[in-house]
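Hi! If you just cloned this repository, the fastest way to understand the data is to look at a raw example. We've pasted two of them here, unedited. The first protein comes first, obviously.
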Amino acid sequence: MEYFLKLFLSGTAKGSIYALIALGYTMVYGIIQLINFAHGEIYMIGGFTALILGGFFFSNGMPVWLVLLFSVLLSIIYASAFGYTIEKIAYRPLRGKPRLSALISAIGVSIVLQNFVLLAQTEKFMPFPSYLPEFSWLQPYKEYINSTQLIILGVTAIIMVFLTLLIKFTRTGKAMRATAQDMHMAQLVGVDVNQVISVTFIIGSSLAAIGGVLICSYMGQINYYIGFVAGIKAFVAAVLGGIGSIPGAVLGSFILGWTESLGTGYISSDYEDAFAFVILIVILLIKPDGILGRTQRQKV
């Protein structure tokens, strides 16, 4: 039972990691039905930004908590600028064109960003210092969950609540819902659709940057390729839960995290990546729209 609990909590922390990225996927898809395959690279860029700035601030004698604060804030700003620019340059000109065009553009942006970081940094894994605090009261339970995992869980919960409140009760959220329901009708009633989509990309990129800092602190390393692997798994989690649904993205992420953790613990770690796609196939065979997804009715 102790072994199961340890694997379950580890899977919960891993699911929280996927959720931070999957939320960005599902927000963008919910608004413009676009799979932003460059989203994983935004997460990677957020991590590298925190690594570079954190090293600079720490070497200049700044306290650790300020290093963490400024690194996260500047990573969010930098990643958001990337997200905004990508939407404006790579996706907006293709709006209204066949979806395959935007999908190819997204894959192209992903490759460009990977190679940009590869040339600017290195192809090797780099150590990533953890600036996150250690909670002394967690010491008796450190075999089951550590401070970094608890922080990731807490941040994921706060972000999910924030996004839910934003979408349901704010003017921006209402504009997002109107745009997602019918973009052309939203324009007719005065919604600035371009601004709504830009804000969606900025929020999604901000979440990816936060995820990049937390996840790299948890793993203790970073390289240019981590965005692709994490992005694919987060996409699987979003589809699993029902892409376009915020609770669905979080639920799918936890299911994916638990499956990988329990599968590697009881079967073999060699099949960790395979477990994600096996469970995706099973769920989609049973419920093609995902666990919390809604069937899209086609107008004919």
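Ok, and the second one:
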Amino acid sequence: MIKSISSADKIFSPFEESLAAYTFPYKFTFPFDYEPHPLSLLAVEKLQSHLENQQEWDHNFGLKADQEGTVIGKMFGVLVVRTEDDEIGYLSAFSGKLAGGNHHQKFVPPIFDGMADGGFLNTGMEKLSLINQQIKALEDKETETQQEVELLKTTRKAHSVSLQKEIFDQYNFLNQKGDKKSLCEIFEDASYKNPPAGAGECAAPKLLQYAFQQNMQPIAIAEFWWGLSPKSDFRKHGHFYPACREKCEPILGHMLGGIEMDEQPF
């Protein structure tokens, strides 16, 4: 007997209540300007309840008095989906890392896990750290070491550029047709010199990537801010926000190709 995805996959959260009173959208959410669909609001309510009650991890959102650690608010997202078994439910994601990690129960995985043990990123960062130590040691000396320092700085820059490119190469994004594009290809098409830092780490690309990998049909999406706002920003706890233009627009342009979306408001 083949198990339904709701019992085999803890990442997919099925709606347990009847959805008879809900009207399903004819088109997918335009992610850069939207009013959350009622189904998205239902998913958000459930995810926010999870955030308030879970005991698996500890992250200081700035919402509890005397909690230790730096206050870091976080963007979360939900994607309402239909599975191959015609089940309706939702996926959850967070932007960047949560509680210092990439993997938590209920949330989709990252597109690339740079924190994986034994991965090339850790090795590459260790090499950069060693070069930095060598530069500092030479600069602390009072002898003529300028040429050695400059050579090490050139080596450091080349290694850093190579490591960044290797990281970019790990990010490959799917669309509903199964077409795959790398991060560099996507941003080259968008006339960017290089992808911006953090591209591919936002909630929306993570949600769509997992849905397409599992042959799920996206129905509606919504993203909200949870926690106190950083001083440099004006995001408010519990408020909804569109996907970011700089990092997400080129990526979502590829991922949502062929999917009929709501009209862009003017």
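That's it. A detail worth noticing about the second one: Residues 1-8 have pLDDT under 50 and may be disordered.
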